[in-house]
Design brief:
By secondary structure, this protein is α+β, with helices and mostly antiparallel strands. It has helices at 15-28, 85-97; strands at 34-43, 46-54, 59-65, 75-78, 81-84, 107-109. It is globular, with a radius of gyration of 15 Å. Keywords: ATP-binding, Hydrolase, Nucleotide-binding.
């Protein structure tokens, strides 16, 4: 039987920490896990963006405040953040392509709710 868990809550309550700890416990118990989560990037105590991190440890930029991407890179904006689609796809698409009938019950997705209107 498939089990899905959706974590919601305001920033800073421990959603990402729970994903990290749960995946480590499952891995150490021999349960195959795959997936990714996002992590805040801060500079001088201020949030400047987010990275995408796979459960295998690969990391890359997901978004930055008003950053400019090199020519030829695709981008979109979510609020004040410029999303690096190329980086996101390079890290997450292989994870999503590895989902098979046999392993789909072990995928640990994190649903990230982007900035609500007027909230930074």
């Amino acid at each position: 039987m498939a089990r899905h868990v959706f974590l919601t809550g305001p920033p800073g309550v421990g959603k990402t920490t729970l994903i990290q700890k749960a995946s480590e416990v499952l891995k150490s118990s021999g349960v195959p896990v795959d997936g990714f989560y996002t992590e805040e990037v801060r500079q001088g105590g201020r949030r400047i963006g987010f990275d995408v991190v796979t459960l295998s440890g690969a990391r890359g930029p997901l978004s930055r405040i008003g950053s400019e991407l090199p020519p030829g890179k695709r981008e979109c904006c979510v609020g004040q953040y410029v999303v690096d689609l190329t980086s996101f796809e390079q890290l997450t698409l292989p994870v999503l392509r590895n989902v098979t009938k046999e392993n789909r019950n072990h995928l640990l997705p994190e649903i990230v709710t982007c900035v609500q209107s007027g909230r930074k």
